[in-house]
Write a structure and sequence with these properties.
The chain is of the alpha/beta class and 273 residues long. The protein has eleven helices and nine strands.
Length: 273
């Protein structure tokens, strides 16, 4: 009989293409068992290998993202439902929430939040969990993403505080916000991405023209009208785009500083009026 330890070793070997092969295997085995990864690791020898695990391993071996296989992804302090047609949240994006937390330190925090390109509600719902007194709006051009975001808000008990609409960035939005969050597409169209990204995640959420800056150009000109007194916008950028993206926002009359992620790469524009 195959033991859980043997099954994990074999699965990790199949996932040699992944930098997180062992973690991928553990997450899939925990999912097959219906428990979380921490419980799996604490009780590893207590479980038989469920038959469903083999099918999950085959899916991952075809480079399907683990988050699509399990249907969930952890982000900040929340868990989000994700699946085909919606961008998978990345830990790097938590840099935006960290920047917002720092901006509002020693204050009551933001009360009105806007999330541009919300995907499955990632940044808005994380911010609403951080500031329970806040309310917010998330917009996305994808109806699939908006549906995911609404389901996530309901699952997290935030349906009365989070309003999601389909929109092309801030078109038609005339309100003022204390915090604007944005994780727009920023990859150059000619870029070659890993199979698990290029084959599975939506291209519209990834690519932004020949230089990766097309959506920053749209957002930069809209942003001044959205920010109230004392407000801040936290905008995700690619690791090599700090100066070029910042220049677009400065040209719109905004002040910009750069914030680096845990890998010491430029990751977030911190933008104020």
């Amino acid at each position: 009989m195959t033991t859980p330890r043997d099954a994990l070793r074999a699965a990790a070997a199949r996932f040699a293409f992944s930098a997180t092969a062992r973690l991928d295997a553990e997450l899939l085995l925990a999912h097959a068992l219906g428990i979380d990864r921490n419980r799996l690791l604490l009780t590893l020898d207590d479980h038989p290998v469920p038959p469903a695990f083999a099918a999950l391993v085959e899916r991952r071996a075809r480079h399907e993202p683990v988050a699509y296989i399990t249907g969930t992804r952890a982000f900040w302090t929340i868990d989000l439902e994700v699946g085909p047609g919606v961008l998978i949240p990345r830990a790097d994006s938590e840099t935006l929430i960290e920047a917002a937390v720092d901006h509002f330190a020693d204050t009551a925090g933001p009360r009105r939040i806007l999330d541009l390109g919300t995907g499955p509600g990632t940044l808005l719902l994380a911010a609403l969990d951080q500031w329970p007194q806040a309310r917010g709006r998330g917009v996305d051009a994808s109806p699939v993403a908006v549906d995911y975001a609404r389901r996530n808000a309901a699952a997290l008990g935030m349906a009365d505080r989070a309003h999601f609409v389909r929109s092309d960035w801030a078109d038609g939005i005339a309100d003022i916000f204390d915090l604007v969050l944005a994780n727009p597409p920023y990859i150059e169209t000619a870029a070659v991405l890993p199979d698990e990204v290029s084959r599975y995640e939506p291209a519209a959420a990834l690519f932004a023209g020949s230089d990766g800056l097309d959506d920053y150009r749209r957002i930069a000109v809209q942003l001044p009208a959205l920010l109230g007194t004392g407000a801040v916008a936290c905008v995700e950028i690619g690791a090599t785009q700090g100066q070029s993206a910042a220049a677009l926002f400065r040209a719109a009359g905004l002040s910009v500083t750069l914030r680096r992620d845990l890998g010491d790469r430029d990751r977030c524009l911190v933008v104020t009026p």
